[in-house]
Structures are given as structure tokens and as C-alpha cells.
């Protein structure tokens, strides 16, 4: 097992543990304001200091972790749940009008980044975590569709697929029973990568006010609140920034390690 997988797994597990613990315990109420204690630097009373409203930042980081994880996880679920079947269908109908429609639809979605999609959605339904999930999820659909189609196309030329066709199996059954299990490893790795990108996207949307709304803590909005106070309260920006960096780094390392671990050709490289 590679060092990347171990280190990435530990960092990711730490974030997940903080998120799960926040359901049962936080040092302070994350929404409780204490103006006399505002802008305190990290210390014994407040491990990560306090913000401009006197809220405990350690508690906010813990609750913000579950916000980021929930948004990214659901968005990846949407992308994978819709993108994988589309990719399998496109590969099974290679060269037909169905393949062309699916892939050109993917190109259309790729033309609009998740932030633009979020702006369009919030213009109609208003800002919020649910709309952020939808926006990021829509952007993930063509990613999984392309990855699935690309991996499946090579498999359709293999002898075991030909044998399945000779046995009378249809395209849908072959895709479910033979293609999908053989591309699952690749999809797991891609899901880990998209999960890390989902964390970044959620932070970016919250930074511009399109993500989770107060009083729900969000790492991106914590950064937005800190942008005018960096000179005299740098911990307000440093702590959520480090949380985002470590989370994304952990997920990327874990994805890289999983790729090496799941691919027999790379398993012997070490490192």
C-alpha cells in the first residue's frame, strides 16, 4: 500500500471524524455570538480563536466540515448516478445518433462551469446548499459520462464481450454485468477526484454567497468574512484556508494512491 494512500486516508479520515463528531459535540455552539470575545487569537479557551462575532472557529470548522462533505458527496452521487449510465449507453451505441446526442449534450454542459450553473439556478430558486449541490452535480454528470464511455469503448472490443453477445445477451445486460464491473475501479478513483473538486466548488460558491446560507457554517463563507480582516485577524482566513487545503490534499493523495493500488500495472511501483 502506497504512502500516498495512507497519508491521504489519514487526512480524509480526520476531516470525516471532525464532521461526524460535530453532530454530537462541539466545544461551543457554532452559532452563539459573544461580542466581548470577538477576534481572539487561538488559545486555551478557543483553540482556533474567534471570529468578528465572537463565534468559536474550531466549532465552526467542525460543522463546516460536514457541510462541505455533504454537498460534495451528494453532488458526486448525482454526477455518478446519471453520468455512468449515460456513458455506458453511449459506448454501447457507439457511432449512432444516441451516442452523438449524449456526447454533444456533455459538451454543452462543459461549456458552463459550475459557478455559472449555480448563478442560473440561484437566479430562479435563490441561493442555498441544495442549489449548490444541484449545480455541482450537473457539472459532474459529463465528467463521469466521458470517463465511463472512454473506458467502456475499449472493453467492447474484447473477446469476453464477444462471447457474451454470442450467448444472446443484449447491450444493456452486457453493460451491467460485464462492462460496469470492469470500469468500477476507474470510477472509484474518479469519484475521489471529483469529491475533492466538489469541496473546492462548494467553498467557491459559498465564498460568493451562493452556497450554504447563515447560520450554517461554510469554509468558503468563513473566508469571505475574513477578507477585510486579514491584516489584524489573520487566523480568520488562515484556519478555513488550511482546512480546505488539507482536505483537498488528502482526497487527491488518496485518489492517487487508490489508482496505484487498484491498477496491477502500478501496484509494484511503491512510493
Automatic annotation (TrEMBL):
Regarding the membrane, this protein is recorded as:
Multi-pass membrane protein
Subcellular locations according to the entry: Cell membrane
| Any one of the GO CC terms | plasma membrane
The portions of this protein that span the membrane are 6-25, 69-92, 112-139, 232-255
Q: Report any one BP term from Gene Ontology.
A: transmembrane transport
The record's listing under CDD domains reads:
TM_PBP2
**Pfam families xrefs:** BPD_transp_1
In this chain the ABC transmembrane type-1 domain maps to 65-255
Which controlled-vocabulary keywords does the entry list?
A: Cell membrane, Membrane, Transmembrane, Transmembrane helix, Transport
InterPro entries the record matches: BP-dependent_transpt_permease (IPR050366), MetI-like (IPR000515), MetI-like_sf (IPR035906)
Task: Give the protein family.
Answer: Belongs to the binding-protein-dependent transport system permease family.
PANTHER family in the record: OLIGOPEPTIDE TRANSPORT SYSTEM PERMEASE PROTEIN APPC (PTHR43386), PEPTIDE ABC TRANSPORTER PERMEASE PROTEIN (PTHR43386:SF25)
The protein, known as: ABC transporter permease
Organism the protein comes from: Antarcticimicrobium luteum
Amino acid at each position: 500500500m502506497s504512502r500516498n494512500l495512507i497519508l491521504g486516508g489519514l487526512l480524509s479520515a480526520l476531516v470525516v471524524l471532525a464532521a461526524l463528531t460535530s453532530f454530537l459535540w462541539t466545544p461551543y455552539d457554532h452559532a452563539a455570538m459573544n461580542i466581548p470575545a470577538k477576534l481572539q487569537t487561538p488559545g486555551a479557551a478557543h483553540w482556533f480563536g474567534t471570529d468578528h462575532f465572537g463565534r468559536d472557529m474550531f466549532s465552526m470548522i467542525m460543522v463546516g466540515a460536514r457541510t462541505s462533505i455533504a454537498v460534495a458527496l451528494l453532488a458526486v452521487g448525482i454526477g455518478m448516478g446519471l453520468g455512468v449510465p449515460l456513458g455506458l449507453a453511449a459506448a454501447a451505441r457507439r457511432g449512432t445518433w444516441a451516442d452523438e446526442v449524449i456526447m454533444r449534450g456533455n459538451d454543452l454542459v462543459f461549456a458552463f462551469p459550475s459557478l455559472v450553473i449555480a448563478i442560473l439556478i440561484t437566479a430562479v430558486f435563490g441561493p442555498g446548499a441544495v442549489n449548490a449541490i444541484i449545480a455541482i452535480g450537473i457539472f459532474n454528470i459529463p465528467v463521469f459520462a466521458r470517463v465511463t464511455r472512454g473506458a467502456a469503448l475499449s472493453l467492447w472490443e474484447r473477446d469476453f464481450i464477444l462471447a457474451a453477445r454470442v450467448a444472446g445477451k443484449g447491450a444493456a445486460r452486457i453493460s451491467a454485468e460485464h462492462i460496469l464491473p470492469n470500469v468500477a475501479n476507474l470510477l472509484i478513483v474518479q469519484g475521489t477526484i471529483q469529491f475533492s473538486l466538489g469541496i473546492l466548488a462548494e467553498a467557491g460558491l459559498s465564498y460568493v454567497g451562493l452556497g450554504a446560507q447563515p447560520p450554517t457554517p461554510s469554509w468558503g463563507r468563513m473566508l469571505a468574512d475574513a477578507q477585510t480582516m486579514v491584516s489584524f485577524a489573520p487566523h480568520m482566513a488562515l484556519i478555513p484556508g488550511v482546512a480546505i487545503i488539507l482536505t483537498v490534499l488528502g482526497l487527491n493523495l488518496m485518489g492517487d494512491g487508490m489508482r496505484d493500488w487498484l491498477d496491477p500495472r502500478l501496484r509494484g511501483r511503491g512510493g
